[in-house]
Amino acid sequence: MSFDDFKALVGLTFRNPEAAATALIGAGWPVSARWMGLMLAVTVSALLAWLSSQLFPLPEGAGDGSPILTLTSQPMVLAGMQLVAVLLAAGLLAGVGRMFGGHGTFEDALLLTVWIEVVLLLVQAVQIAATLILPGVAGILGILAIALFFWLTVQFAKALHGFTSGPKVFLGVIGTAFAVGFILSLLAASFGLFPEVPQ
To answer: Which residues in the chain come in under a pLDDT of 70?
Structure first.
Protein backbone atom coordinates (compact mmCIF):
# COMPACT_ATOMS: atom_id res chain seq x y z
CA MET A 1 0.00 0.00 0.00
CA SER A 2 1.45 3.36 -1.04
CA PHE A 3 1.18 6.47 1.11
CA ASP A 4 -1.45 7.90 -1.25
CA ASP A 5 -3.48 4.70 -0.93
CA PHE A 6 -3.13 4.92 2.85
CA LYS A 7 -4.40 8.51 2.89
CA ALA A 8 -7.27 7.63 0.60
CA LEU A 9 -8.28 4.71 2.82
CA VAL A 10 -8.13 6.87 5.96
CA GLY A 11 -10.34 9.46 4.29
CA LEU A 12 -12.79 6.78 3.14
CA THR A 13 -12.87 5.35 6.66
CA PHE A 14 -14.16 8.65 8.03
CA ARG A 15 -16.54 9.33 5.12
CA ASN A 16 -17.90 5.83 4.57
CA PRO A 17 -16.52 3.22 6.98
CA GLU A 18 -18.59 0.38 5.49
CA ALA A 19 -17.06 1.02 2.08
CA ALA A 20 -13.59 1.19 3.65
CA ALA A 21 -14.17 -2.15 5.38
CA THR A 22 -15.37 -3.70 2.14
CA ALA A 23 -12.30 -2.35 0.33
CA LEU A 24 -9.99 -3.77 3.00
CA ILE A 25 -11.59 -7.20 2.87
CA GLY A 26 -11.63 -7.18 -0.93
CA ALA A 27 -7.94 -6.27 -1.14
CA GLY A 28 -7.04 -9.86 -0.31
CA TRP A 29 -4.32 -9.09 2.22
CA PRO A 30 -2.41 -12.28 3.12
CA VAL A 31 -2.86 -13.55 6.67
CA SER A 32 0.83 -12.95 7.40
CA ALA A 33 0.45 -9.27 6.49
CA ARG A 34 -2.52 -8.97 8.84
CA TRP A 35 -0.48 -10.37 11.73
CA MET A 36 2.43 -8.11 10.88
CA GLY A 37 0.07 -5.14 10.84
CA LEU A 38 -1.20 -6.15 14.26
CA MET A 39 2.30 -6.38 15.72
CA LEU A 40 3.27 -3.00 14.25
CA ALA A 41 0.08 -1.27 15.40
CA VAL A 42 0.26 -2.41 19.03
CA THR A 43 3.98 -1.61 19.21
CA VAL A 44 3.49 1.93 17.90
CA SER A 45 0.50 2.43 20.20
CA ALA A 46 2.52 1.38 23.25
CA LEU A 47 5.39 3.65 22.26
CA LEU A 48 3.02 6.59 21.83
CA ALA A 49 1.57 5.90 25.29
CA TRP A 50 5.09 5.85 26.73
CA LEU A 51 5.97 9.08 24.89
CA SER A 52 2.85 10.73 26.27
CA SER A 53 3.77 9.68 29.82
CA GLN A 54 7.25 11.16 29.34
CA LEU A 55 6.02 14.42 27.84
CA PHE A 56 3.26 14.96 30.39
CA PRO A 57 4.34 13.33 33.68
CA LEU A 58 2.07 13.64 36.70
CA PRO A 59 3.28 15.69 39.68
CA GLU A 60 5.50 13.77 42.08
CA GLY A 61 3.45 11.49 44.30
CA ALA A 62 0.32 11.72 42.16
CA GLY A 63 -0.99 8.41 40.91
CA ASP A 64 1.55 6.32 42.81
CA GLY A 65 0.82 2.65 42.30
CA SER A 66 -1.54 3.27 39.39
CA PRO A 67 -1.61 0.23 37.06
CA ILE A 68 -1.93 2.53 34.05
CA LEU A 69 1.18 4.49 34.99
CA THR A 70 3.05 1.25 35.58
CA LEU A 71 2.09 -0.02 32.12
CA THR A 72 3.00 3.18 30.29
CA SER A 73 6.48 2.97 31.80
CA GLN A 74 6.83 -0.52 30.32
CA PRO A 75 5.81 -0.13 26.65
CA MET A 76 6.54 -3.72 25.64
CA VAL A 77 4.32 -5.08 28.41
CA LEU A 78 1.61 -2.65 27.32
CA ALA A 79 2.07 -3.79 23.71
CA GLY A 80 1.56 -7.39 24.79
CA MET A 81 -1.65 -6.52 26.61
CA GLN A 82 -2.91 -4.55 23.62
CA LEU A 83 -2.09 -7.51 21.39
CA VAL A 84 -4.30 -9.74 23.53
CA ALA A 85 -7.04 -7.07 23.58
CA VAL A 86 -7.05 -6.73 19.77
CA LEU A 87 -7.16 -10.51 19.32
CA LEU A 88 -10.03 -10.73 21.79
CA ALA A 89 -11.88 -7.95 19.97
CA ALA A 90 -11.35 -9.66 16.61
CA GLY A 91 -12.54 -12.98 18.00
CA LEU A 92 -15.67 -11.37 19.45
CA LEU A 93 -16.31 -9.39 16.25
CA ALA A 94 -16.24 -12.60 14.24
CA GLY A 95 -17.78 -15.01 16.75
CA VAL A 96 -20.65 -12.94 18.11
CA GLY A 97 -21.56 -11.77 14.61
CA ARG A 98 -21.75 -15.34 13.36
CA MET A 99 -23.97 -16.25 16.34
CA PHE A 100 -26.47 -13.73 15.00
CA GLY A 101 -26.36 -15.00 11.42
CA GLY A 102 -23.32 -13.18 10.07
CA HIS A 103 -20.81 -14.69 7.67
CA GLY A 104 -17.56 -12.92 8.56
CA THR A 105 -14.34 -14.79 9.30
CA PHE A 106 -11.78 -14.29 12.05
CA GLU A 107 -9.10 -13.36 9.49
CA ASP A 108 -11.23 -10.53 8.09
CA ALA A 109 -12.28 -9.45 11.59
CA LEU A 110 -8.59 -9.29 12.53
CA LEU A 111 -7.85 -7.10 9.51
CA LEU A 112 -10.67 -4.70 10.37
CA THR A 113 -9.77 -4.58 14.05
CA VAL A 114 -6.15 -3.79 13.20
CA TRP A 115 -7.31 -1.00 10.89
CA ILE A 116 -9.43 0.48 13.71
CA GLU A 117 -6.28 0.41 15.84
CA VAL A 118 -4.37 2.23 13.09
CA VAL A 119 -7.03 4.94 12.81
CA LEU A 120 -7.04 5.38 16.59
CA LEU A 121 -3.24 5.67 16.46
CA LEU A 122 -3.63 8.68 14.18
CA VAL A 123 -6.05 10.23 16.67
CA GLN A 124 -3.63 9.42 19.51
CA ALA A 125 -0.79 11.19 17.68
CA VAL A 126 -2.98 14.24 17.05
CA GLN A 127 -4.01 14.20 20.72
CA ILE A 128 -0.37 14.29 21.86
CA ALA A 129 0.36 17.19 19.51
CA ALA A 130 -2.78 19.01 20.66
CA THR A 131 -1.78 18.60 24.31
CA LEU A 132 1.42 20.48 23.56
CA ILE A 133 -0.42 23.35 21.88
CA LEU A 134 -4.01 23.40 23.19
CA PRO A 135 -4.35 21.17 26.27
CA GLY A 136 -8.11 21.69 26.43
CA VAL A 137 -8.60 20.18 22.98
CA ALA A 138 -6.80 16.96 23.97
CA GLY A 139 -9.57 15.99 26.40
CA ILE A 140 -12.21 16.48 23.71
CA LEU A 141 -10.17 14.33 21.31
CA GLY A 142 -10.06 11.59 23.94
CA ILE A 143 -13.86 11.53 24.12
CA LEU A 144 -14.12 11.62 20.33
CA ALA A 145 -11.70 8.67 20.09
CA ILE A 146 -14.03 6.54 22.22
CA ALA A 147 -17.02 7.52 20.08
CA LEU A 148 -14.99 6.83 16.93
CA PHE A 149 -14.07 3.36 18.18
CA PHE A 150 -17.70 2.35 18.69
CA TRP A 151 -18.83 3.97 15.43
CA LEU A 152 -16.19 2.16 13.38
CA THR A 153 -16.81 -1.13 15.19
CA VAL A 154 -20.52 -0.97 14.35
CA GLN A 155 -19.98 -0.01 10.71
CA PHE A 156 -17.22 -2.58 10.22
CA ALA A 157 -19.36 -5.30 11.82
CA LYS A 158 -22.11 -4.49 9.33
CA ALA A 159 -19.71 -4.80 6.41
CA LEU A 160 -18.06 -7.94 7.79
CA HIS A 161 -21.25 -9.88 8.43
CA GLY A 162 -23.67 -8.36 5.94
CA PHE A 163 -25.89 -6.81 8.61
CA THR A 164 -28.16 -3.93 7.69
CA SER A 165 -29.40 -2.53 11.01
CA GLY A 166 -26.94 -0.16 12.64
CA PRO A 167 -28.93 0.22 15.91
CA LYS A 168 -29.16 -3.56 16.39
CA VAL A 169 -25.43 -3.96 15.76
CA PHE A 170 -24.72 -1.12 18.19
CA LEU A 171 -26.80 -2.82 20.88
CA GLY A 172 -24.92 -6.04 20.18
CA VAL A 173 -21.57 -4.28 20.53
CA ILE A 174 -22.57 -2.59 23.80
CA GLY A 175 -24.06 -5.80 25.19
CA THR A 176 -20.94 -7.78 24.31
CA ALA A 177 -18.69 -5.10 25.85
CA PHE A 178 -20.65 -5.19 29.12
CA ALA A 179 -20.68 -9.00 29.22
CA VAL A 180 -16.94 -9.27 28.57
CA GLY A 181 -16.21 -6.51 31.08
CA PHE A 182 -18.28 -8.31 33.72
CA ILE A 183 -16.54 -11.64 33.10
CA LEU A 184 -13.09 -10.04 33.16
CA SER A 185 -13.91 -8.22 36.40
CA LEU A 186 -14.95 -11.51 38.00
CA LEU A 187 -11.74 -13.15 36.84
CA ALA A 188 -9.68 -10.23 38.11
CA ALA A 189 -11.40 -10.36 41.48
CA SER A 190 -10.95 -14.12 41.78
CA PHE A 191 -7.21 -13.76 41.17
CA GLY A 192 -6.92 -10.80 43.55
CA LEU A 193 -5.93 -8.33 40.86
CA PHE A 194 -8.00 -5.48 42.26
CA PRO A 195 -6.01 -3.26 44.65
CA GLU A 196 -7.17 -3.16 48.23
CA VAL A 197 -8.96 0.02 49.28
CA PRO A 198 -7.11 1.75 52.16
CA GLN A 199 -9.07 1.78 55.42
So the answer is: 56-73, 188-199
